[in-house]
Design brief:
The structure holds two protein chains of two kinds. Chain A is α/β, with parallel strands linked by helices. Chain A contains nine helices and ten strands. Chain A has two domains: about 190 residues, Rossmann fold (3-Layer(aba) Sandwich); about 80 residues, no CATH class. In chain A, about 50% of the residues are buried. Chain B has three domains: about 210 residues, P-loop containing nucleotide triphosphate hydrolases (Rossmann fold), CATH 3.40.50.300; about 80 residues, Translation factors (Elongation Factor Tu (Ef-tu), domain 3), CATH 2.40.30.10; about 100 residues, Beta Barrel (Elongation Factor Tu (Ef-tu), domain 3). Helices cover about 20% and strands about 30% of the residues of chain B. Chain B is built from eight helices and 21 strands. In chain B, the strands form three sheets. In chain B, strands 7, 8, 9, 10, 11, 12, 13 and 14 form an eight-stranded antiparallel beta sheet that branches. Chain B has a six-stranded mixed beta sheet with strand order 2-3-1-4-5-6, with helices on both faces. In chain B, strands 15-19-17-16-20-21 form a six-stranded antiparallel β-barrel. At the A-B interface, helix 1, helix 2, helix 6 and helix 7 of A face helix 2, helix 4, strand 2, strand 3 and helix 5 of B.
């Protein structure tokens, strides 16, 4: 048997873990058909680990849902498949290409795939009748998220109404829904980027290899280092060169930039994060740069 | 894993701030975040650019915390915002709440999970109705530690007598409240005096700086480690060959310490058994305490389901359907007698009938208005409820988890009230 803590104190990471596990169990108990939105990024992997722990030794009692943008990093998909196989969890893939083919969303070549994730996701939620969707959003990421509830209500159009959120007190979560509505659940709301890294290190769990330092052919665009890929044609004046980089987030390959880094272990990444002077989204996410309220606007429409 | 121990041993402090822009709350939070390096360059640059575009001659740090478009447009904080920063010893979660009376419900929300409440006063104005109200709400929500930050000391010439007067006035007022721990700190959020570094302008003050106090205030003893309370959240039955007979009761410990071998009672049935073992993921552990999320196994095959509570045979809450509570009402349609609502208490859900509104509490004066027969939005009062299911509850003053509940409008599904059980 493991001796716990003789002074009855829990480290902050253990407290965060206990809070998140409580949220997972609460949702599994109260919602008819939850689903975990999985991007393959570090935050969704931490969610998957927490869900594994919350229901052990039973399997995770819900499916995981991934929106396939067609622009995902291959390394991320490989990691996803290994997690799915290990946990024996059911994977639902909602593909943007399929949604376009089936006429669910318009084929608007000019609209970024990031935008098209929203109708694809909402369609999948409706089609499968999911009543609660876990997301890996953290309140430290962005100021619209700083005000979002752990249980975040979505109307029948999948929209978030930030001015009309339900009060959320103590650890008493209100999961009441009307027909056609669903709830977004953010079990790691109170985690910071550093907490996520600490936890990945402590739990010694697999994350996509692109988070670690590697050699990559990249070019500079809008002050960010982008991956060379046929999916993202070069513009005039852009030059490809090989650099030593890693990614701080895993998004759409055409919008997610990397940073120059030699951090090849979790400890080195933590050291880097601890002294980072730019937020992970501000530094490397083209999709958050459109305006000061970019995230709030996308969230209102039904973004993750 | 070796070498990756940045956050492990760290402690956690959740604190709620209350105050309006005029009190310098945003400036203070901005300073705490800046000085602990929780604000990133790109965030600061965005705020500087917006301040300049708006024609301000200073960087408006409130822009960092006002996250919603409508808040930025109106220049006020409407909702609770959560902020994060850390020092080498502690991680902090700030529930940043608006101070105006029409947002009392937001302050109640922020205070519900706080270990410490921070009330700001403007040294030039002294105690105001607003600062008294903030202290009353923090005390009602049983936030165990209170800090009164006397801000803008630079504007009163760092005068000790100004501080002493506010100190005396506040401590006198606080005798009417439940304030187990109080610290009154003279600061200048703008200039940084006594925020992180000790002020050279106030040699007469020998107490801690705000940051020092936040880092060192002792919160581990605030939990109830005596009265074992385990609300059952979820029953884990793997239905696999390997774990064929596994039946575990999952939940978060709400009070006391649970150990294998403990004689326990399952409420409301009253069946007794012993704890066979306690699991934390794939490990068996020797004891579980708040706020651990664990899985408890009993020796006997008794009927246990979500909403039940496991407690000690000789120390269990008495199930009750008649509830006497302080309620903060959170919606525009007033709370009235004979109203029926859904109630959620720990992992238990039922319905509640409003029997009586005993009085409305004036949160500015503590006056009890017994003539009233309803509670409006943002009002707090003492209410009697009758519930369809017995609640397995403790007085809120003893246990903030088993003593609290929320009320839900059954038609709209919205959370409309927050309750704290008397006793």
């Amino acid at each position: 048997m493991t001796q716990t803590h003789s002074d009855y104190r829990l480290s902050q990471l253990d407290q965060l873990e206990a809070e998140s596990i409580h949220i997972f169990r609460e949702v599994a108990a109260e919602f008819e058909k939850p689903v975990l939105m999985f991007s393959g990024g570090k935050d969704s992997i931490v969610m998957l680990r927490l869900a594994e722990k919350a229901f052990y030794p039973a399997k995770i009692p819900f499916s995981i849902l991934q929106v396939d943008t067609g622009l995902d990093f291959p390394e991320v998909m490989e990691t996803r498949d290994r997690w799915v196989a290990r946990l024996g969890v059911n994977l639902v893939v909602a593909s943007i290409d399929d949604a376009i083919k089936n006429g669910i969303i318009p084929d608007a070549a000019k609209i970024s795939r990031n935008r098209l994730q929203i109708p694809t996701l909402l369609n999948a939620i409706e089609e499968h009748g999911f009543t609660a969707a876990f997301g890996g959003g953290r309140r430290d990421e962005e100021k619209a998220r700083a005000k979002e509830r752990v249980y975040s209500h979505r109307d029948e159009f999948g929209q978030w109404d930030p001015k009309n959120q339900r009060p959320e007190l103590w650890s008493l979560y209100n999961g009441r829904l009307h027909e056609g509505e669903h709830m977004r659940i953010f079990p790691i709301s109170n985690w910071t980027e550093l907490d996520v890294w600490d936890y990945i290190g402590r739990e010694d769990i697999e994350i996509p290899s692109i988070y670690y330092s590697h050699q990559r052919r990249v070019f500079e665009r809008d002050g960010m280092l982008m991956s060379e890929t046929p999916l993202n044609p070069l513009r005039d004046g852009e030059v490809v060169e090989e650099r030593t980089v890693r990614f701080r987030t895993c998004g759409d390959i055409t919008l997610t930039g990397c940073v120059e880094s030699t951090a090849s272990t979790i400890a080195e990444i933590i050291d880097e994060v601890a002294v980072a002077r730019k937020t992970e989204r501000g530094a490397t996410r083209g999709d958050d740069r459109f305006s000061e309220a970019a995230m709030e606007d996308r969230k209102k429409e039904g973004y993750f | 894993m070796a070498g990756t121990n940045t956050g492990y041993g760290m402690d956690l402090l959740r604190f709620a701030t209350a105050g309006s822009v005029d009190d310098g709350k945003s400036t203070l939070i901005g300073r705490l975040l800046l000085d602990s390096k929780a604000i990133f360059e790109d965030q600061l640059e965005a705020v500087e650019a917006t301040s300049e575009a708006k024609g301000y001659d200073y960087t408006d740090l409130a822009l960092l915390t006002d996250g919603l478009r409508s808040e930025r447009e109106q220049g006020i904080t409407i909702d609770v915002a959560y902020r994060y920063f850390a020092t080498p010893n502690r991680k902090f979660i700030i529930a940043d709440t608006p101070g105006h009376v029409q947002y009392t419900r937001n302050m109640v929300t922020g205070a519900s999970t706080a270990d410490l409440g921070l009330v700001l006063v403007d040294a030039r104005q002294g105690l105001t109705e607003q600062s008294r109200r903030h202290a009353v709400i923090l005390s009602l929500l049983r936030v165990p530690h209170l800090v009164l930050a006397v801000n803008k000391m630079d504007l009163v010439g760092f005068d000790q007598t100004v501080y002493e007067k506010i100190y005396a006035e506040f401590t006198q007022f606080a005798t009417k409240l439940n304030v187990p721990d109080l610290e009154v700190i003279p600061i200048s959020a703008l200039q940084g005096d006594n925020v992180v570094t000790r002020s050279e302008n106030m040699p007469w003050y020998s107490g801690p700086t705000l940051m020092h106090h936040l880092e060192h205030v002792h919160v581990a003893s605030d939990r109830d480690l005596i009265d074992a309370r385990f609300p059952v959240q979820y029953v884990i039955r793997p239905k696999s060959d390997e774990f064929h007979d596994y039946r575990g009761y999952a939940g978060q410990v709400a009070g006391g310490i649970l150990k294998p071998g403990d004689e326990v009672v399952v409420l409301p049935s009253g069946m007794t058994s012993k704890i066979a073992k306690i699991d934390l993921f794939d490990q068996e552990i020797t004891e579980a305490f708040p706020p651990m999320s664990v899985t408890v196994h009993l020796e006997d095959d008794v009927d246990v389901s979500r909403g039940d509570m496991i407690a000690r045979v000789k120390n269990a809450p008495s199930p009750s359907q008649d509830i006497d509570a302080m309620i903060c009402w959170m919606t525009t349609t007033p709370l009235q007698p004979r109203q029926k609502l859904a109630i959620k208490h720990t992992t238990r859900t039922g319905r509640a009938l409003v029997k009586d509104i005993q009085y409305r509490l004036d949160v500015n004066t503590l006056h009890r208005d017994q003539a009233t027969n309803e509670l409006g939005v943002n009002e707090i009062g003492r209410v009697t409820l009758r519930t369809t299911v017995p609640l397995l509850c403790d007085p809120y003053s003893k246990n903030r988890t088993t003593g609290s509940f929320v009320l839900i409008d059954e038609a709209t599904g919205v959370t409309v009230g927050a309750g704290m059980i008397n006793g």
